[in-house]
Amino acid sequence: MSLLTQAAPGDTHVVIETGQTALVIRIDKEQIPTIVHLGTKLRNAAEYGTISGNGKRGEDYTGIYNSVYTPAGSRNLLEPAIQVTHADGNPSLDLHYVRHETQPAGDGVVLTKVYLKDPQYPFEVTLHYKAYQQEDVIEQWATIRHTEKKPITMQKYASANLYLPAQTYYLTHFHGDWANEMNPSEVQLTEGIKVLDSKLGTRADLFQPPSFLISLNQPADEDRGDVIAGTLAWSGNYQLAFEVDPLHNLRIIPGINPYASAYSLAPNQEFTTPSFLFTYSSHGKGGASRSLHRWARKHRIPQGQGNRLTLLNNWEATYFDFNEEKLSALFKDGKKLGVDLFLLDDGWFGNKYPRNNDHTSLGDWQENKKKLPHGLGYLVKEAESSGIKFGIWLEPEMVSPKSELYEKHADWVIKLPNRQEYYFRNQLVLDLTNPKVQDFVYDVVNGIMTKNPTLGYIKWDCNAVIYNAYSATNPNQSNLFVDYVQGLYKVVERIRAKYPTLPMMLCSGGGGRVDYGALRYFTEYWPSDNTDGLERVFIQWNYSYFFPAIASCNHVTDWGKQPIKFRTDVAMMGKIGYDIVVSKLTEPELQFSQEALKTYDRIKPIIWQGDQFRLSSPYTSDVASLMYVNEAQDKAVWFSYLVKNRYKAGSVAPIKLKGLSPDKKYTIQELNVYPGTKSEINTSTATYSGNYLMTIGFNPQVSSRRESVVLEVSEVK
Ligand code: GLA
After folding, report:
1. How many angstroms separate the alpha carbon of residue 395 from the centre of ligand 1?
2. According to the model, what pLDDT value does residue 279 have?
3. pTM, 2 dp
4. Which domains does the chain have, with CATH numbers?
């Protein structure tokens, strides 16, 4: 038994710090690396050496409960981060510290690499930590390589292995299904392992996303408490393991799901795990979210600090039933409404098997000659001459069993040779582990873009999961799930390299693919096919823990019972779009929408680039309320919604604002006032100090007569 958390003379400390947070790795004289601190950073880094094993960590039989990357098969007793079988069949691994290095990696970013090696085998793991100073985010991943004589098998290869001591741990995780994404559950973790995972293959989510919050010592609060927000940047099978160990410390092990994925790694080939991203906030969930939002806008999402296009989509207006004439009329409607772009959804392709329903044609990405006799080029021009841009829907990873692609290339399809095909939305998945298929998918997009260089937008959909996982060409069947996602990333990386500014929406049968792996390549995501205004208040609220408003595609559609004002107000909390028949709007509805788009154009920088504050939760109050404040703190936009319909439900008391400057004076004006109605707010010319608004608050007067209220808070200069 050893007490390896006790600092001893000769111990080395690897200190990974952001503006507020530190992750400290101690290397003892046996070269064993363990985590001795994860939390608020110390003012004097030399004092990390003083940290001694505390009561919680106690005596550990192995000295590696708090391993920085727990290897399996030697003396480990807990959940490992990595488990391998060597080329000689030996199932053990030990990882000793070799050296570390720190280097600048861009504006305000510091990269630390910690090199580890098995003393018995030519097997190395390098842990990478990118510390984003201003945003307080740490991005961690591992690279694994060996020079053994033959391939080795990796049973498990996590991205990170964190260690935290606290009295209690509260995990907030999310779950759901199609059109019902992101329902939160908060549970207190008890001893043992809680696992969140996905086995869907093509996407991380349908049932549960790879994102979570951990609150230490108390349930998570918006403003108070120590909270970790974590998310795995991986669009496929993942596993997040939360283990409260025998000493009551929390071990967090996020990574690729080991399920059916024992990975064969050839000598000299380097395997890179996906990134695990996390932020540690001592200002509750709100602080954690704002850090992730800032990080994502600046460092991850393409044009995260740039522009986005408002759009009109035809999916719910026409479904598969359209032709050039109908579409041309819709372009004009889009222009009349005031959007930037028209998005042609599903149904425009396939000739031998025309895409008139969702049973055929995926894979045959040629314009359907009957519906679109003059091709996409004609539509691009028609839209442009109506004054708006044109974009299209694609689902290039998929194939319909009834398609020319399937007839020609059955070996490009993921399916088992000796089992009956089983479909998800009547379709199958192409084998993106095959380089020929990668080329095909790239060529589909590149071909369309080359023919139509001014095409302004791609909605990239992915409506099926992987059943009957088997590749006709991959020599390692158990590499399939991992190689699939890597194959997908290779393709979109090539597309991004050639079309760096093309706006691309990440859609996956609703919110199946909302992760920072894919959001490296996509400018925005589709949170859910459920666009009911009331439902979206909840769905968007939950995504906002991890993802910034600028990336959230929120469309006004005919789903739900809320009036158009409510649906528009909700859609404004992100990137607004429409999926309605404009010609069916009443005169006041059209007038309202046109005005709303003009207002949106003015206030969108505050929503997209501002700090978001969740003020009043739809789960605990009659009124959901949240606001966005710009950096200069001279402008804010504040949204409030009635989410309960009991008698007298509404904002009975003032709601306290957040994020303003206490010393500034502000006025409050109501936006999106529906034609023919009067604002109860705009009659006042009062000014309020930020201090007053944040201490006493202001009542937005939400009631059954005013179910949604948007207020603009402006500094009086
Ligand atoms: C998915 C998407 C929808 C729409 C349809 C088209 O369900 O989530 O928005 O594009 O596919 O088939």
Report:
1. 9
2. 98
3. 0.97
4. 12-285 (2.70.98.60), 311-609 (3.20.20.70), 614-715 (2.60.40.1180)
